[in-house]
Design a protein that fits this description.
single chain; 244 residues; alpha/beta; Rossmann fold; 7 strands; elongated
Length: 244
């Protein structure tokens, strides 16, 4: 993980797992494989789906706190420490690589070359990001509380997802052009899940533990006890590795 801001997730791994949406099963459509890699696997949100579909699933995650949750959630996966720029797998060892909500943390050029190294000829790479179509309907007091905490963290600059800078590593790399599709879906949670999401976003995760806990407490106090539906789209980019 080359972007140091991504390191902030380690102490909030449990909240990340509690507060992040699942992925739609359709994300795996068209990917035929035996051995696959979930790169930057986090707490296993996508890994859960992979182990149900594929015979061998490697899950590589650099952060120890995230790996601990991943190993608990998906014991069927072969969990390894490592990052996208130095993947701890042999050359040509997998048929497909999946990267869910993580590629923007990578050194794009180094990661693409490493992915090409571990992929077999004509292997598939799937990169997915989660896009909010409609935000949660939260009371004004919740928005004010979140903004107050976020203001204590220096701005991080333009996200690589929105800017498209994560694609830079594919220039001249041994991959076909990226094909894009969108998979709308809905994820439901409760007020504790909403609070867990905001506590675990990268900006808030950088705050001291007592401030994160204060945010959680304040949000749960102002959020009605109800089900919260989040309208999402999985933005899925697929490509094939060229034959050697």
């Amino acid at each position: 993980m080359s972007d140091p801001q991504g390191l902030a997730f380690d102490p909030v791994a449990e909240d990340y797992d509690r507060g992040r949406a699942d992925w739609p099963l359709e994300l795996l459509d068209g990917v035929k494989a035996d051995a696959v890699l979930d790169l930057g696997a986090g707490t296993g949100k996508l890994t859960r789906l992979l182990v149900e579909r594929y015979s061998v699933v490697h899950a590589v995650e650099p952060l120890a706190g995230m790996r601990a949750v991943l190993e608990r959630n998906v014991p069927e996966a072969h969990v390894l420490p490592g990052d996208a720029e130095r993947i701890p797998l042999d050359d040509g060892s997998v048929d497909a690589v999946f990267v869910a909500e993580a590629f923007h943390w990578f050194d794009s050029k180094a990661a693409v070359l490493e992915i090409a190294r571990v992929l077999r000829p004509r292997g598939t790479l799937v990169v997915a990001f989660s896009e909010w179509l409609e935000p949660w309907a939260l009371p004004d007091a919740a928005h004010s509380t979140i903004a107050e905490r976020a203001a204590k963290v220096p701005p991080a600059g333009a996200p690589k997802v929105a800017s498209g800078r994560w694609r830079e590593g594919f220039e001249g790399a041994p991959f076909a052009a990226l094909e894009e599709r969108s998979l709308p879906h809905v994820w439901e949670t409760d007020r504790e899940g909403v609070a867990a999401y905001y506590v675990s976003i990268s900006s808030i995760a950088q705050l001291p533990p007592d401030e994160r806990e204060a945010l959680r407490t304040e949000l749960i106090e102002v959020l009605p006890e109800a089900r919260y539906s989040l309208q999402l789209a999985a933005k899925v980019f697929t490509t094939k590795r060229h034959a050697r």
